[in-house]
Amino acid sequence: MENKGSGLLDGLLLGGLIGAALGILFAPKTGEEMRASLQARLKEYGLGDLVESLSEAFEAGKDEAAKFMEEEDL
């Protein structure tokens, strides 16, 4: 049963991130203005650290993918 709850939470988190990304893409503000606004709003809800952690994880994954592509000559 714990796996179902974890899956739901993962799905909600992923849905929220996708929604935020789409909001940024289609917003009338510039990307820089929108990111600053989004970061401020997330900090209000105490989620600033989560966003920073996800950003760091994304960058680490991007670096690993680049290393793999280089190693495999792709």
- Residue share in helices? over 70%
What summary fits the major beta sheet?
none
| Coarse shape | extended
Instruction: Give the tally of structural domains.
Output: 1
Mean pLDDT: 80
Low-confidence stretches: none
Number of strands: 0
Ends apart, CA distance between termini: 42 Å
What is the strand content? under 5%
Broad structural category:
mainly alpha
What is the N-to-C order of secondary-structure elements (H for helix, E for strand)? HHH
Overall radius of gyration: 16 Å
Count helical runs. Answer: 3
Report on this model:
This protein is mainly α. Helices cover 85% and strands 0% of the residues. It is built from three helices and no strands. It is extended, with a radius of gyration of 16 Å. The termini are far apart.
Features:
single chain, 74 residues, mainly alpha
List the helices and strands and how they pair.
Layout: H1 2-26, H2 31-44, H3 48-71
Compact summary:
This protein has helices at residues 2-26, 31-44, 48-71. With 74 residues, the protein is mainly alpha-helical. It is extended, with a radius of gyration of 16 Å.
